[in-house]
Amino acid sequence: MKNITDSFLSLGHWPYAGSFEFNTDILSTNLINLGVVLGVLISFGKGVLTDLLDNRKQRILNSIRNSEELRGGAIEQLEKARTRLRKVEMEADQFRVNGYSEIEQEKLNLINSTYKTLDQLENYKNETIQFEQQRAINQVRQRIFQQALRGALETLNSCLNNELHFRTINANIGMLGSIPEITD
Predict the structure, then answer these.
(1) Measured between alpha carbons, how far apart are the two ends of the chain, in Å?
(2) Which of left, alpha, beta for 183 (phi over 0: left; psi -120 to 50: alpha)?
(3) Which residues cross the membrane (predicted)?
């Protein structure tokens, strides 16, 4: 506790009030603060962050599996469409004289609709994966921020007590008493 206090104020020895001064070494005080915050984040946030990431990973994997199943269904539809296409081609050979252009148009429409369906399913899968990843990242960021804030508040509350306040006030009063008055 004394190390934390000394990192903010260089008080030296407390026996006399004239030794009170601020620590103007920004680098050492910022490094200590950064070390404390990082230590709290690592110690308290490690398990929660791991659990969050594992849960998100499972959800994303489930989404991928669902998308793969949808893709499998689309492939089955494609195979059915190909079978139908073969059937249409056989009928086209039989009725080539009577309606060749009409049958070709039906074939193209069938192929286009199948490819559109596949494209839509692939886009849906990619959007789902991207959405789940972004949502996982946002949740992790929010949890880390909350834990960092909670840890910083706990550190501040544990460092600031009545004795420290009284000692600081007495030291400041002593410094103000030793300053000569300035008259114009």
Answers:
(1) 44
(2) beta
(3) 31-49
pLDDT-based confidence at residue 8 (cuts at 50, 70, 90): very low
Tokens of 6: 């000394």
d(C-alpha 145, C-alpha 132), whole Å: 20
| Confidence at residue 26, expressed as pLDDT on a 0 to 100 scale | 64
96-128 pLDDT, tens digit each = 766 667 777 888 898 899 899 989 989 998 999
Question: In Å, how far are 107, 114, 152 from 86, measured between CA atoms?
Answer: 9, 15, 70
Residue pLDDT, tens place only, 77-102: 989 989 998 988 888 777 776 666 77
Q: Which string of b and e fits 108-147 if b means at least 16 CB within 10 Å? A: eeeeeebeeebeebeeebeebeeebeeebeeebeeebeeb
Residue 22: φ, ψ to 5° = -80, 145
The Cα–Cα gap between 132 and 61 comes to 10
How would you label 5-37 residue by residue, b for 16+ Cβ within 10 Å and e otherwise? eebebebeeeeebeebeeeeeeeebeebeeebe
Residue with tokens 């929660």: 48
The structural domains of the chain, with segments of one domain joined by +, span: 31-131
